[in-house]
């Protein structure tokens, strides 16, 4: 009994330690991205789409393999087929132009055969094989784009979580400062050196800061939940992010690795492949090898000559099919493809121009944000100094509460401006990497 109790206590200790470890688990950005590469459902769907496109390519290639079918049928004629036979075929003296109706055959007919068909040349099949190969490459590009988007979303959420952590740190510092100010004001009130309204003002500010901290903390939970969703992990798992924000200096590149442009270009190849197939189907014939072997059975169930006899039948040959006229359907499809190609080329030019504009805007925003970060850091340091000096002056009786509150508001405004500048910098840097195709680096 004592041993079991010790085991239970040990198990509870291990479980408690595991829960504490999970509660304190800090994920780096790389860990989040690596986890998403495996568990993100969007990426898994796109991987399945690649497999589907591979199967479609194999399906198109399988049309070149011979097809073998087995056929059988049974017919019972309640009324035998009737033919008209010239009367002079049996009686030369019969007048020409007179016929006699005759019923040929037996009521029971059975057919069974095995047929083989293999395309020797079919422009539509070869066109479909080429198109499915291009479609597979297009699906792979879509996967790369979705992977970049997932990486972009996870990085954005991770940065947001880091910014919120810094916001919480600023709030904790401001709450601590307000708490010290409140104690000081209560002490001055007890000494009849401060009004009750002054204490109420500081209490109000303390409550506002606590409420703001609760709202910011709730936003952090929302961002972390969104991060878990994109990573593909359970919402019950407790995670946190590294609080330190690394503002790496990325080298600008003139190269443009635009996945959207690659997708449009691959779509252009697909459209040209479809157009080529349509043109070939108008002027090139299809040649198929055909063969059949089977048996034909005839049966008669009337006495005294009831019987059931089977006779073999087989043939082999080639079948040539040449399109002469299909009601201008193919020509109308060709016209549609040409218009689609024109739109595709215009879209390609539009993507290039849009990318150039967005790159220029991102570079300018990043440059401005870098300068703003430096300025706001200096402003925070100066605001802290002013706040501390104002607190000291207030203790000495040379500054009033309004001066302290103004200095505190100036400090919080400088902190908010710093966070906004960091957000702008990270957003511009991430957007620039995405536009340049270097986001995976």
From TrEMBL:
Domain of life according to the entry: Bacteria
Database matches in Pfam families: OEP
Signal peptide location: none
Entries under SUPFAM superfamilies matching the protein: Outer membrane efflux proteins (OEP) (SSF56954)
Keywords recorded for this protein, A-Z: Cell outer membrane, Membrane, Transmembrane, Transmembrane beta strand, Transport
InterPro entries recorded: OMP_efflux, TolC-like
Places the protein is found: Cell outer membrane
Similarity-based family: Belongs to the outer membrane factor (OMF) (TC 1.B.17) family.
Official protein name in the record: TolC family protein
Native source organism of the sequence: Aquirufa aurantiipilula
Taxonomic path: Bacteria, Pseudomonadati, Bacteroidota, Cytophagia, Cytophagales
């Amino acid at each position: 009994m004592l041993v079991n109790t010790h085991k239970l206590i040990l198990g509870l200790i291990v479980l408690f330690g595991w829960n504490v470890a999970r509660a304190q688990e800090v994920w780096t950005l790389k860990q989040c991205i690596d986890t998403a590469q495996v568990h993100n459902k969007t990426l898994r769907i796109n991987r399945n789409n690649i497999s589907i496109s591979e199967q479609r390519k194999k399906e198109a290639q399988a049309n070149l393999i011979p097809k073998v079918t087995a056929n059988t049928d049974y017919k019972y004629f309640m009324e035998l087929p009737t033919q008209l036979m010239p009367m002079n075929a049996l009686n030369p003296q019969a007048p020409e132009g007179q016929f006699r109706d005759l019923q040929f055959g037996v009521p029971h007919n059975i057919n069974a055969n095995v047929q083989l068909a293999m395309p020797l040349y079919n422009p539509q099949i070869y066109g479909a094989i080429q198109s499915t190969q291009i479609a597979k490459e297009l699906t792979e590009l879509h996967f790369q784009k979705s992977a970049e988007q997932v990486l972009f979303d996870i990085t954005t959420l991770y940065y947001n979580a880091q910014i919120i952590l810094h916001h919480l740190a600023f709030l904790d510092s401001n709450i601590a400062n307000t708490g010290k100010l409140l104690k000081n004001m209560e002490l001055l009130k007890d000494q009849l050196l401060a009004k009750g309204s002054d204490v109420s003002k500081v209490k109000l500010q303390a409550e506002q800061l606590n409420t703001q901290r609760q709202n910011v903390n709730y936003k952090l939970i929302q961002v972390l939940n969104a991060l878990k969703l994109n990573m593909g992990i359970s919402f019950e798992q407790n995670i946190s992010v590294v609080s330190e924000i690394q503002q790496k200096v990325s080298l600008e590149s003139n190269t443009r690795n635009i996945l959207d442009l690659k997708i449009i270009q691959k779509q252009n190849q697909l459209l040209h492949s479809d157009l080529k197939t349509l043109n070939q189907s108008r002027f090139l014939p299809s040649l198929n090898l055909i063969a059949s072997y089977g048996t034909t059975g005839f049966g008669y169930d009337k006495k005294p000559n009831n019987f059931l006899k089977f006779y073999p039948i087989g043939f082999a040959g080639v079948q040539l099919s040449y399109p002469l006229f299909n009601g201008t359907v193919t020509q109308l499809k060709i016209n549609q493809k040409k218009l689609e190609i024109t739109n595709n080329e215009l879209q390609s030019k539009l993507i290039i121009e849009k990318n150039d504009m967005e790159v220029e805007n991102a570079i300018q925003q990043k440059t401005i944000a870098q300068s703003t970060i430096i300025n706001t850091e200096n402003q925070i340091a100066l605001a802290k100094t002013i706040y501390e000096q104002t607190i000291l002056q207030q203790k000495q009786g040379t500054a009033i509460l309004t001066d302290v509150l103004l200095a505190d508001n100036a400090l919080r405004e400088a902190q908010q401006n710093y966070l906004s500048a960091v957000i702008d910098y990270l957003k511009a840097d991430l957007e620039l990497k995405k536009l340049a195709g270097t986001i995976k680096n």
